[in-house]
Amino acid sequence: MKQPLDAKENFASSLLFWMAKFVRYKLSSLSNKELKNEELFSKTIMALAKNVPNIEVLSTLAKDARNAGLTGINTYFNPLFKLYNALLSYELESMKNIDEELLSEVLASITGGLSDASKKNYRIAVINFFGFIDRQNETNGASHNYGIELKSWGGVSGNRGVKLPEFLSEDEISKFIGAINNADFKKFTHRNRLILKVIIYTGIRVGEAINLRRKDISEDGDLYVLRIRGKGNKYRVVMIKKRLIQGDLDALETNFANKDDYVFTNKKGSALTQAYISRIVEKLLLSVGIRKKKNGAHMLRHTFATMLYKREKDLVLVQEALGHASLNTSRIYTHFDNEKLRLAAMVAEDFSGE
User: Fold this and answer.
1) CA angle centred on 353, ends 348 and 354, rounded to 5°
2) Residue 302 is among the residues annotated as catalytic for this protein
3) Mind listing the pLDDT tens digit for each residue in 71-84?
4) CB 265 within 8 Å of CB 272
5) Residue 159 has what pLDDT?
6) Which of 231, 234, 292, 313 is catalytic?
């Protein structure tokens, strides 16, 4: 159902109305797996459904939602809180006076001194907010539509300034796998081998690997199917050939208590740490003469993604396998596409006349 952009009172009331509606929508759509206080959350949702009198009350309700466990609301509310106060200083008569140029100007003002990552969060929050209003008012194309994209604002669009990921070449991968198989770990040999192989053969994050549980592993013919809990509590599935890890999985050291059913634990039955895995990776790389600027375990994920794109040339496949929320994140793995670079070299040869 269409909602008016302009409240009867003034611009401030209209903007507050839409912010409260948006916050309620976001709270309903965020994952509730981290919810700690259901009663507080329910009260917050009900309060947002009523008339929110001022921005201070809305700020308190957002804080209540955070205290209830939905900390993700910070990403959206904090930028909008600053946007609200900044827009009031323009003394606009109607929300229909808001356009992309004005928002770019306001964002430049309220994000001065912030990091590029924070500026991206502000941009995402603003785009989401006005996109929400557009969807609420979409009726046969007859309503006001903002169409906010902010593509050129603040230099945060696209992938400018994105550093190319560190990764292993195919020869280095072979050396590293050999180092894994031949390493003398003294303790938990099969555990250490298995977690490193799972990461480099599937591209899952180190944090996803150390939180893997026995119940998340199933079989499908000659494959192991791993159910991965990724960022934002979103689940996806990855697969790995049995022959690559079955020996270490069958021989996995499990002679200690493990109430959480983790696959990879220390002797106390607790999940391993990312720092521990990265130290192992660094030692193994150095043992075979491989030195990178970043020798940590996350490089194994970059390596898998790089090899996957190199062989399949399928960005959507990379996105699905790695659990990227955006296809743009996956685009960094096209940096080594030598076949296209060879074509560029041929074109240069053609027009050189030599």
Assistant:
1) 90
2) no
3) 888 889 999 999 99
4) yes
5) 44
6) 231
